[in-house]
Design a protein that fits this description.
alpha+beta; Immunoglobulin-like; 3 domains; 7 helices; 24 strands; globular
């Protein structure tokens, strides 16, 4: 009996070692032209706290912990390298060639715009970090790396960064490395007035360093998670509207989510399908123009259906506007969904920017807290 127990224990140990090994990705980072190795390059999984640095030989080894987020390689003076679905390269040695940036952003000559850098930076902070308590607590340590340009032909503020932005988020106790690809703020006419904005978005990759001691940031992080876009996606995917205290409305009236969404398991994620568009009835008018150019509207006595957006209310407190751009959304166990721009938000969720972003696997932390 003891021999059998020892054999079983040994099997578990071996299985454990295999599992750990199966999550490792390793490789070498090199210059694409010289083929010389690049020591000191940063390698991380996008949106997580998982990272490493290449050694003197340009070699890295990173434990993904089963996370299949995009693998990002960053090195000053080189274009950022991104590898999707990195788990397919487990137990294979990668050789990543980084391409040196041929044109420095400092060399790009842009004509003098209608707004000063100070004016544009104010908008950048509002639209990138946000104006929430967390957003206002953030400080970008290398703002000089931000490149701003206002395109008068499209009334658009454009921003990018020469190097990853180093952000200290005091409210959530994170040090964030944000490799900004672009930030776009579009206006209806030449202006920087927030009430004249037609759309705003940014994209990039992130790495988080947890600065919290003695769990002092736990409460603030939980409060940030609940009522967010990630929380909403999880609620839809798990059909947990009542449990999560989120209510769905169309034109001010509460509606049954089952009338609008169908959810099924597929490939380890939840497939959410919008089966019915939110709509409202409006009267059908015809436009009549008299010879004297007087315009009148004639009621045809009919109504037609017009598409509207959803409204959601979290805890009878935070109200958001939700538009499903894509009718099919895929949501993972942490509430991350694709396509990333498949859902657009206004209201409360629309105000949450990079300052309110949490690691993509933060929901696992919440589940562990709930167990405890």
């Amino acid at each position: 009996m003891k021999k059998s127990y020892k054999k079983f224990l040994l099997f578990l140990i071996l299985l454990s070692n295999i599992t750990v090994q199966s999550q490792l990705i390793e490789g070498t980072i090199l210059d694409s032209k010289t083929k010389e190795t690049l020591p000191g390059a940063t390698v991380y999984l996008d949106g997580t706290t998982i990272s490493t640095i290449t050694d003197t030989n340009g070699y890295f080894k990173i434990n993904t912990k089963g996370n299949n987020a995009t693998l990002v390689v960053s090195f000053i003076g080189y274009s950022t390298y991104r590898l999707d679905n990195p788990l397919q390269y487990v137990n294979k040695k990668l050789k990543v060639m980084l391409v040196e940036e041929s044109i420095s952003l400092d060399e790009v000559v842009v004509g003098k715009g209608p707004f000063s850098r100070k004016q544009m930076m104010k908008v950048f902070r509002e639209q990138f970090l946000g104006e929430s308590k967390a957003g206002r607590s953030c400080k970008i340590l290398n703002e000089d790396d931000i490149v701003l340009y206002y395109d008068v032909s499209t009334n658009t503020l454009n921003a990018s960064a020469r190097n990853p932005l180093k952000i200290i988020n005091k409210h959530l106790d994170y040090e964030v490395n944000f490799d900004l690809e672009e930030l776009i703020v579009q206006y209806n006419y030449k202006s920087l007035d927030k009430f004249n904005q037609s759309r705003s978005y940014f994209s990039g990759t992130t790495f988080y360093k947890d600065m919290s001691k003695n769990n002092r940031a736990d409460k603030k992080r939980r409060e940030t998670f609940y009522g967010s876009a990630t929380h909403f996606a999880l609620t839809v995917a798990n059909e947990a509207w009542e449990k999560e205290d989120i209510r769905l409305f169309v034109e001010g009236w509460p509606v049954n989510p089952k009338d609008y969404f169908k959810v099924k398991d597929t490939l380890g994620v939840k497939q959410v399908t919008l089966i019915k568009e939110p709509q409202k009835e409006v009267k059908d008018f015809t436009l009549d123009k008299s010879p004297s150019n007087n315009v009148t509207f004639t009621d045809k006595g009919k109504t037609k259906l017009v598409k509207v957006n959803f409204n959601i209310l979290y805890k009878k407190e935070h109200q958001s506007i939700v538009e499903f751009v894509d009718k099919v959304i895929y949501v993972d166990e942490n509430g991350n969904y694709s396509p990333i721009y498949g859902i657009l938000y206004g209201g409360y969720i629309g105000t949450l920017k990079a300052g309110n972003m949490l690691p993509i696997d933060y929901y696992q932390v919440i589940k562990e807290m709930q167990k405890g």
